Amino acid sequence: MLEYLLATDDDVFLGPVHSDRYPDVLEPTGWGAVPVAGDGHYRIAVEGMRIEFTWEMPGLQITVHGTSDNPVVDELVATIAHQVGTELAVRVRVIPL
Length: 97
Known about the structure:
six-stranded antiparallel sheet; 25% helix
């Protein structure tokens, strides 16, 4: 299991994205992600992984199950961070937990 936090540069609360926008914002473009049932505010399956999203202070926690391939996960999370930042019009940083 790998965990990340998406937060703003100035630690102002990031989000949340309205739930009807989750598919467009939290499913990484070009990765073939599909929504799945499970814990958290939203969940996807992609590349053999299950990913949970939970809005918490100060941002969005991302929990990745089913891999230990950090470079692939880092690229995936960076894609999601970019999409969240674009949606909310803020600069987002990725913090590995």
